[in-house]
Amino acid sequence: MVTDSFSIKAIMKNYTKKSILKLKPSSTLVINEKSKELISKGKKVYSFGFGQSPFPVPESIVTKLKENAHRKEYLPIQGLVKLRESISKYIEKKTGNLYPTENILITPGSKEAMLLMHVAFNGEIILSAPSWVSYEPQAIIGRNKVHWIETTRENNWFPTATQLEKKIKSLNKKNLIFILNSPNNPSGTTCSNLTELAAVAKKYKLLVLSDEIYTDLTFCNKYDSISKYYPDGTFISGGLSKWCGAGGWRVGFFAVPKKLSNFLKTIVTLASESYSTVNTPAQYAAVQAYEEDFKEYKSKTLNILRSVGYYVYNNLKSNKVLINQPQGAFYLMPEFLNKKFKSSTHLCETVLKETGVAMLPASDFGFNPKRLLTRLCYIDFDGNEFLKADINGKLLSDKIIEKYAPNVVEGVQKLSNWAKNL
Q1: pLDDT tens digits, one per residue of 13-31
Q2: Neighbours of 193 (CB within 10 A)
Q3: Going by C-beta distance under 8 Å and a sequence separation of 6 or more, which residues neighbour residue 421?
């Protein structure tokens, strides 16, 4: 059949529209709603599915929000200049590289920043399994084809430089973006081969999106970014939702290297036609978040997450449940060695029904559905109360965890017993 160029465009447009209309709601949000629904019906649910920080927003930042609550004016599309200056300095301090103020865009959460990047980009996307649930759907919305790299537990669930190079060569494409997230959602592990991956990216002029929403929550307290080794080709996205506990405030950013300034202009145009500008009072408050030290707050919250993560890891791992040790964020990715279940979704549904533990199937993160991996989020506790504990630089005792995170303790015990009896 002979088809003219106009018809091809029409077919592709229709195909893309169909793909978008087939998208399902984000699984992380769905599990949160499902857990709330079960709780409202009187069922005991251990909420290990939704990744929302349990800690309060630092008081000085809340105060700044209150002080600026009267502000009702639209701010510049690109964001409050003072906030962009603060973020620019913050990135330079953490990575050693300058992302100028004019090359930073403030967005309603880093999720929106990444979506706009996908829409603005004309090329293809490389993802590693596991990857955050929204990377692939956003690529589909942006009409960008996705290519996957399968990772292994032995390499901490990140691709090797050899794998990345092999994938690039097999695609033979010029316009590619590789998305890297460390500490990783869903695995809770960190990438230890950033220099090698950066060398491959630089060799092939591969663009990299470094999703650094969890980088301030690295348990070794080291902020490592691939932009340190490949600044010219690395975008950085981040925000206040994870380390700061301000997820509902929806304040994120997108930082672009100097050489890619024209790409940012396109994204700013898209921003102007979608959300116009980010919440004004929240932007003024966010300046405080990036300029104040918050060393004590970060130290305490990080130690709580590290201690609880190790507790879950030590009490769940067995010859039937394989897990990598947690290294950051608030996730673990256990693999259940049992052929009884048809898929990771089937596994999670059974676990929720029989134990009340809500987790997400790893098929949502890019794995083969038959691989019985799940994402376990270990923050079902009251962060306000937990911060009242005697917290120092050492791992917290089981006794403290049992007192301040009883749901986590009870849920893990139920899950562990369930796994042993399979």
Answers
A1: 444 667 666 666 655 566 6
A2: 16
A3: none
Collapsing DSSP to helix, strand or coil, 160 comes out as coil
- pLDDT digit string (tens) for 142-167? 999 999 999 999 999 999 999 999 99
Residues 290, 386: Cα–Cα separation, whole Å = 24
Q: Which fold has domain 73-291?
A: Aspartate Aminotransferase; domain 2 (3.40.640)
Strand intervals (E) in 99-224: 104-107, 124-129, 145-150, 176-181, 207-211
What's the pLDDT at 32? Answer: 65
Residue with tokens 């209309």: 21
Judge contact between 80 and 407, C-beta under 8 A: no
Residue 155 is encoded by which pair of tokens? 């390499």
Omega cis (within 30) before 108: no
Q: How far apart are CA 376 and CA 322, in angstroms?
A: 13
Report the distance separating Cα 264 and Cα 173, nearest Å.
22
Query: Hey, is 185 helix, strand or coil?
Result: coil
- Please name the residue ranges forming H helices in 173-227: 194-203
Report the chain's C-alpha Rg in angstroms: 22
In contact, 184 and 330? CB cutoff 8 Å: no
Asked whether the beta carbons of 205 and 16 are under 8 A apart, the reply is: no
Question: If residue 321 lies in a helix (H) or strand (E), which one and from where to where?
Answer: strand 321-322
As its CATH architecture, domain 23-52+295-420 has Alpha-Beta Complex (3.90)
Domain boundaries along the sequence of the chain: 23-52+295-420, 73-291
The C-alpha atoms of residue 148 and residue 136 are separated, in whole angstroms, by 10
Closest CA to 239 of 83, 117, 59, 96: 83
C-alpha span between 57 and 179 (Å, rounded) = 28
Helix or strand holding residue 352 (H, E):
helix 344-355
Q: Burial of 37 by CB count in 10 Å (0-12 exposed, 13-18 middle, 19+ buried)?
A: exposed
Quick one: DSSP state of residue 373? B
Closest CA to 308 of 326, 295, 335, 333: 326
325 pLDDT exceeds 90?
Answer: yes
Strand, coil or helix: what is 331? Answer: strand
Q: How crowded is residue 170: how many other Cβ atoms within 10 Å of its Cβ?
A: 9
Amino acid at 112: E
Predicted model pTM: 0.90
DSSP H or E segment with residue 236? strand 234-239
**From CA 202, how far away is CA 325, in angstroms rounded?**
31
